[in-house]
Design goal:
- By secondary structure, the chain is α+β, with helices and mostly antiparallel strands.
- It has four helices and four strands.
- The longest helix has 18 residues.
């Protein structure tokens, strides 16, 4: 699951890069057995959105409490955003039921 902030008004390219960064980094941190299963299953990814940094950080906190693999992207500040801006959060890969406990009510990124 990739969650991006919509309040930042990132360009499409910037948003794609931030989401990609989140997905790769979270996958690198995941348990090898989960990665293997996720890879065999087609590496499912879903993009959803939040409106604020507060919402994004709240989701990160839920992941910590539930011990779900995650990765928060904070931008380097080289192009559109100030250094350290939290832009995207990847959750998983993990069992869908676990991830949905954190993200089940979020709207799809359109």
């Amino acid at each position: 699951m990739i969650i991006v902030r919509t309040d930042l008004k990132m360009s499409k390219g910037k948003l794609a890069v931030q989401a990609s960064h989140a997905a790769v980094a979270a996958a690198q941190k995941a348990d090898k057995k989960i990665i293997s299963s996720w890879t065999r299953g087609g590496q499912k990814k879903v993009a959803v959105k939040v409106k604020t940094e507060k919402e994004l950080l709240s989701l990160q906190d839920k992941c910590r409490k539930l011990k779900i693999n995650h990765y928060l992207v904070c931008d380097a500040g080289l192009t559109e955003l100030k250094p350290g801006t939290a832009t995207a959060l990847a959750i998983g890969p993990d069992k869908e039921e676990k991830v949905n406990k954190v993200t089940g009510s979020l709207p799809l990124l359109a």
